[in-house]
Every structure is written in C-alpha cells, then in structure tokens.
Amino acid sequence: MSTVQPKKRIDWPSLEVKKFSPTIYTYNAKKTCGTAALAVITGEDPYDIDVSPIKGKSKHWSDRAILRYLTKRKYEIYPISVPNIKTSNTYVQQPITENHVVLLSMRVTSRQSTWCVLFKDLLYHGAEILPLRPMEFLNNKLYSSYVLFRPEWGYSNNY
C-alpha cells in the first residue's frame, strides 16, 4: 500500500501496534538521520541501506525518497494532517496515540532537518533513545509526519 490519499477517512485505532521492536545501531555508517530512522523502523543494518536516493550535499532524505524506500518494503504509510486527524467536532478526540509508530521530519537548526521515529513516548534519533519532551515540537518546526504500519506488528487491543 502506498501513501493513503488525504480524502480517505483513516481508522487510526486500527493502526495501533503492540509488537514493534525498534532497532538501534550504535553506529550510523551513512551519517544521515534518515538512514538511522530507516534502520530503527526496518531493522536493516545502516551499512545495507542504499543512500543513492539522497541528492546533493545535504545528506537529508526527502519525504519522497524515504516513503518510496518504505513502500517498496510493504510498509503502510498514512500522512498525519489536520483534516486526517480532526474528523469530528469532539475537542477531546486524540486519534494518534503512543501505540502508533510515527515517522517525522523536523527542523533542528537554522540549516539542518532531521528524521526521527516516535513510539511509546520515546523519540528515536540517530543512535539515541530520548524521552519525548512536551516542548519538542514548539522548539523544532515539524515538516511532515506519518503513521507507519505493518500487519506483523500486530494490532493493539487498546481501543
């Protein structure tokens, strides 16, 4: 399945997982946060991840390249956007939970963006596992975010 079309209603609770096992490598052979994020998600060794989709000197994976990489490996990808998550008039609706695997791109310096993975209130970035801080997304501009899913991760029983 490729990226879901924005007009299609997404059943967010059905994308919660219980068996996701993030893989952390203490080295990042390709020295890119996108490669590290792909390793966290797929379990692939960073040495084995083809970085040819990265163009120019930036060493930053574009959304298109990183999503294509995951789509080829049969990951389901759902873009997170206001129209996708706010589908009712209920203020307390919180469709994205800590039981979702979230891939996101954000600006971390005036000239640098990064990719990281969120799961269970933890932020996976490079070779680090960090507690998710409430102010993270106010201090670092969020560019894009996606819920990822694979049937083998199992469905959560939390809904």
CATH architecture: Alpha-Beta Complex
Give the overall form. Answer: globular
Query: Which runs of at least 5 residues are low in confidence (pLDDT < 50)?
Result: none
Determine the structural class based on helices, strands and strand pairing: alpha+beta
Rg, rounded, reads 15 Å
Strand line-up of the largest beta sheet: 1-6-2-3-4-5
Question: Topology as H/E string?
Answer: HHEHEEEEHE
Q: Give the terminus-to-terminus CA distance.
A: 24 Å
Kindly give the count of domains: 1
Classified by CATH, the class is Alpha Beta
Strands, count: 6
pLDDT averaged over residues:
84
**Number of H- or I-type helical stretches:** 4
Helix content: 10-25%
Which topology does CATH recognise?
Cathepsin B, Chain A
* Binned strand content: 15-25%
Question: Strand count, sense and closure of the main sheet?
Answer: 6 strands, antiparallel
Condensed summary:
By secondary structure, this protein is an alpha+beta fold. It has helices spanning 33-42, 63-72, 82-85, 136-139; strands at 76-79, 101-107, 113-119, 122-125, 128-131, 142-149. The longest helix is centred in the first third of the chain and has 10 residues, at 33-42.
